[in-house]
Amino acid sequence: MTDQRQALQAALDAEHAAVYSYGVIAAYANADRARLVAEFSAAHRARRDATIELLEAGGTAPEAPDAAYNPPFPVDDPIPAANLAVAVESDCAAAWYAVVEQASDESVRATATEALTESAVRRARWQAILGANPVTTTFPGRAAV
Predict the structure, then answer these.
(1) Residues 142 and 97: beta-carbon distance below 8 Å
(2) Which CATH number fits domain 3-130: 2.40.50.40, 1.20.1260.10, 3.40.50.2000, 3.40.50.300?
(3) Percentage of the chain exceeding pLDDT 70
(4) If you write DSSP's letter for every residue of 38-103 in order, what string do you get?
């Protein structure tokens, strides 16, 4: 498997985890955030499906998702739910950043850049909800050096 395909598979794994995690987020998020959670969940489902199609178009059979995903911390009320959303978007941004770095195909790089940007914007929205300052970072998705 090429570096590009490995990075795409890792991004697909992150999208599978995001879709699952947004189900947890929906269960505990503030009721005022229901529309936002539904919108972001739908975006991850669409990105997951597009990534599957991208892998298949490149001749790779995507790996199946895990049966379940454990949150990195307990989620039992709206604040941990919002923090989980930040973590999910951070993980997706990092995965798509890796695709940008590994992409040998220009259209894959463009898709990854779009996905990275979308995750960074969603992360910033959650950070704003949590009252973080600043709400974003320089080079979202890039590992801190």
Answers:
(1) yes
(2) 1.20.1260.10
(3) 98
(4) HHHHHHHHHHHHHHHHHHHHTT-PPPPPPS----SS---SHHHHHHHHHHHHHHHHHHHHHHHHH-
CA-to-CA separations, 138 to 1, 48, 73, 141, in angstroms, rounded: 31, 25, 26, 9
DSSP structural state of residue 21: H
Q: How many CB atoms lie within 10 A of CB 59?
A: 7
How far apart are alpha carbons 51 and 69 in whole angstroms? 19
pLDDT exceeds 70 at position 128: yes
Report the alpha-carbon angle 26-48-124, nearest 5. Answer: 55
Rounded to whole angstroms, the Cα distance separating 24 from 14 reads: 15
pLDDT band, residue 123 (cuts 50/70/90): very high
Asked whether residue 9 carries a pLDDT value surpassing 80, the answer given is yes
Looking at residue 140, what DSSP letter applies? T
Q: Who contacts 80 (Cβ-Cβ below 8 Å, separation ≥6)?
A: 28, 71, 73, 74
Tell me the whole-structure pTM to 2 decimals: 0.95
